[in-house]
Design goal:
Blueprint (H helix, E strand, L loop, with lengths): L1 E3 L14 E2 L25 E3 L2 H12 L9 H15 L7 H13 L2 H12 L4 H13 L4 H9 L7 H18 L5 H8 L4 H10 L13 H9 L7 H15 L3 H9 L6 H10 L5
Helix pairs in contact: 3-5, 4-5, 5-7, 7-9, 9-11, 10-11, 11-12, 11-13
Length: about 280
């Protein structure tokens, strides 16, 4: 037996073993193969003397902050901690998104659903954003998708509505964009402008999504149905979504725009945005 200080323990060369070789020395053992690059006698076991400290150091770097707990009290305490932490974040959503993913991966769906519903009751909008990211991961459950449509869409904070758009896109990605067409069409016809915009904004750039990438006309015709939407908020999203597509499919967007009657100010607004890159 001999000791060796190594540079890494989670590399392809060193693997995860603290020892290399075996005192049994069975002649048929696969570990004798040259592919393992053992530069010493098989029976002379090599011990990675700094292996434990290296493993600990590597795991610390890879470990993500997350929550693993059981019971309502620990859940409430966790949300209180989130409120303190997230209330310090004024811009962006990356931290809420990362934490939601880590918590989703660390807990079973029953627990995560309870956590998401409880977090959505928070008065801190950043925690509600976090909860909506969780809803996106859980959106294959019909009750969650309905809650997103009927309840999350009523939240008065615009940042929460931005996350709703991302959560809807997550649903489409999990379900498959083609299979999601009935839900996409249903949401586009909803009476709540936040629901309609969750689709037009959430799927941008539409033609970078599977199915719509190969069927751009399917995206264009759906977006264009809202060209005269009663909400300026929605119309702006519609114009921007069509403008996105025009960069790669200018002929298709031009054909669509040429078919419009631009007498109304609503359509004029969308037309101006959508035609920005059309020559």
């Amino acid at each position: 037996m001999h000791f060796k200080e190594v540079k890494g323990i989670l590399s392809s060369k060193n693997g995860m073993n603290l020892f290399r070789g075996c005192t049994n020395g069975c002649i048929y053992c696969d570990s004798r193969s040259n592919c393992y690059r053992m530069n010493h006698k098989f029976e002379d076991v090599e011990v990675k003397e700094n292996g434990i400290s290296l493993l600990e150091e590597n795991l610390k770097r890879k470990r993500k902050k997350c929550m693993i707990g059981l019971g309502a009290s620990s859940m409430k305490e966790y949300i209180l901690n989130l409120e303190k932490e997230f209330s310090l974040i004024e811009n962006g959503f990356k931290e809420e998104e990362k934490r939601a993913l880590a918590d989703y991966l660390s807990n079973d769906n029953v627990y995560t659903k309870e956590l998401a519903f409880l977090a959505f009751k928070s008065n801190v909008y950043q925690v509600r954003m976090y909860s909506v990211f969780l809803f996106g991961h859980l959106s294959s459950y019909e009750e969650i998708l309905i809650f997103m449509r009927d309840e999350v869409s009523k939240d008065e904070n615009w940042r929460v509505q931005e996350v709703l758009a991302k959560a809807f896109d997550e649903f489409c990605k999990l379900t498959g964009y083609e299979k999601s067409l009935p839900v996409i069409d249903e949401w586009l016809q909803n009476t709540n402008p936040n629901v309609r915009r969750a689709v037009t904004e959430g799927l941008r750039i539409w033609t970078s999504r599977s199915y719509f990438k190969d069927n751009p006309s399917e995206a264009i015709k759906r977006i264009a149905t809202l060209k005269e939407d009663s909400s300026e908020y929605v119309r702006k999203s519609v114009g921007n979504a069509l403008r996105d597509i025009s960069k790669k499919f200018p002929e298709l967007i031009k054909e669509e725009l040429d078919s419009w009657d631009v007498k109304s100010k609503e359509i004029q607004q969308v037309y101006k945005l959508a035609s920005k890159f059309i020559k």
